[in-house]
Amino acid sequence: MDYALDFGSSNTVIARRSPVTRQPEMVALPGLSQPDGLIPTLVCMVPGDPPRYLCGQQVREYLQQSPHAPVFHHFKRALLQSADEAKQAGAIFLQRLLQGLHQQNYAINALVLTTPVDAFEPYRQWLTEMARAWQVPQIRLLDEPTAAALGYGVADSDLVLVVDGGGGTLDLALVQLQRPGTRTHLGWIVRWGDREFDHRQKNSQAQVIAKAGVNLGGGDIDRWIFDYLVQKHGLTTGDGIPLTLTIAERLKIQLSEQPNSHQLYFDPRTGISQHWFLERTELDQILRHHHFFERLDAVMQYLWEQARVQGYRPRDVDAVLLVGGMSQMPAVRQWLQGYFPASKIHHHRSLAVVAYGALGLNLSAPIQDFLYHSYGLRYWDKRRKSHHWHELIPAGHPYPSPEPIELMLGASLPDQTAVELVLGELSHPTGQGAVYFENGRLVLRSADQDPEVQILNEALHLPLDPPGQPGHDRLHLAFRVNADRQLCLTARDLLTGHCLCQDRPILTLT
What we know:
The chain is of the alpha+beta class. About 25% of the residues lie in helices and about 35% in strands.
């Protein structure tokens, strides 16, 4: 049976098709899932020899007895930033999910994993490796906003904006939904085949026009609320232990449905209980104090800079689909109304919509995608006397590559015996920037920040025999991304005519 896993910062969802109705349903794992089926993305170490680990709902129940227990939470964000310390917690959590599925005798024939649009390749590789340990015959990755667009099922909408706000990230994706009889587009295509989510939309397709993301989520807001209330009530503690952060989260959730909220707070250090109240107007003040809306505006700006190059404008959007807990906040909906009419904004679907949409992916169909980040080649800047990056493959590059990307290189030193190639994944900041016209397209670049870089390979050395001399082109390089997301290199020595490598895979972009 096919399954989908939406590994979230605050909650994780496992979904499958009901063997009876063939409709999507959440998979509840005893001890790990909440009553609503969501699995809290939490790991807790219980002291012992050896220590044991609790996961999911077990952690929240344990914290009622041991509020100061060491808990790993929101570690997905650390994983997205390639933090090694988070990998153990992530591995323990995902392995426990697998154990829970095996205990229920669930057989996984195919698995779709959802990922944030701004995830660097090391995170995608790590997540795929975890899934391979489950010995699943088929594994596919799908962007979370794309899965949400497929799963929302809004009728009569062709162009939708998916706003996916979770515990640690905010992702925006402009998605073109295509139905039989509509015009054909190039780019990201998903064919649902005979496993369509909505029976009225057989053989539907979706194309991502533009996407942008930022590390900002509900977990940040919980911390802001807690710090505000600690100061408001004159408390001496500001630890923000998981149990108290949970109280802050509950206050926030209540404010999504009512203008004020109330929770009982017990300070374990003083033994004093207090009634904590928070009004929606106070939450809005907290958000503004932390420049929440300015950061959202910057991400929205970056999204539309991508979309305008392709001829799309905000007025073309038929529906705005809100996904994730943070997206349910009235403040977020009000912010969106500054861009779109309220009638276009939809927020009625459950937190499982991403996993449900991923179930619509036809695993046997070919997928054409484009790269979200840019890929660059490191070079030495003599003037600034430091390493910098030359953008080699721009964001938005489709794969398989329609044609190779060519580059000429020469020696920088006399009698140079090799040329060193170091490749990195570039993510340009989503802060305020300027728009430039480069090679026939508009590009947004930060005005005062260098791109974030994830180095992807050990230095690759191309030999020069005889040694190279400065002032002359020596190597002709041709890069392409194949259908398996492998970056392949063909290198030829212009002096000798020798082919140093032919379509050699040097990176696998999982």
